[in-house]
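SAMPLE LOG
Freezer: B-3
Tube label: C17
Construct: single chain, 188 aa
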Amino acid sequence: MKRILFFATPADISPVLQHFEANAPLKFVEMGTLTTPNRAIYLESALIPNPGIATHETGSLSRGYMVSYQGTKNHMDSSVTRKGERRWNLFNSDNEETVILSLAGFWKTGTLLPGIMDTLHQTPAAQQLMKWFLAALKQEGFTKIDLWWLGREALEMLKAGKRLTKTAEQSPPEFDLKLPASIQQASL
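STRUCTURE (predicted):
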């Protein structure tokens, strides 16, 4: 399954996460390169801090999580910077039974930044997680516009002319998600 792109406010994404994790015990592990091997691990999505609130002005750079079954062992690499500082890396490429989830959401200006679920792997576990997430979006009434799934509040924002940027706050407005004419007509 290909990546799943979405726009979701906090009210949109929280019930999606609840449906998603109702399928099996999952864990959400903070991804990326850190100065310590210790990282946040959430065994329930309700414990994730501020879902639907972006942590960076670029959606893809907002805090991301590696999602897997709770029993899955995550592989972490370490590296040394040019300055001799040790870093610990947790990436999807080294973990075949995982998916990545960036929730993004509202930025400080009120712009809605895109979230994504993706994986590099075709393993049954990774593909099942992708399917469960897509099913949860549909259960919560997300609407597909072009390549993007929009939660109810996100769709209302789009109809009201608010910014839903496909990449980042600093992206020019002409690249924002646009409301298709068919939905504009249905709204009248």
